[in-house]
# Entry
Amino acid sequence: MLPARVAPGEVLLLCEDVRRRLTGGGSGRRLVCDARALGVRGLAAVDLLARLQWAARRAGGRIVLREPPPAVRELIRLAGLPLQVEGEPEEREPPGRVEEAGDLHDPAP
# Structure
């Protein structure tokens, strides 16, 4: 469970905890982080979540957020963080599209 307020020194401890929990499990491991207590702290919340995700990636896994407040979800979206929220489908790249070159005035074959 993520605390409502995190002091700068505690961020490193949380990142180390994420790495410890995910190390040795192989790729694809996920750690669910309960984010209900995260208040709207602006970029401090975004910074914390980005650092936790980075620590998880370095350990071969990823974090998944459980019930982040709507304002925190919006900050994540605006910051473009690649974080998954539990119960929502994982965002993936859209499939490639085929584009045909040609002049709009050319008759169809």
Summary: The longest strand covers residues 29-34. The first helix runs from residue 8 to 22.
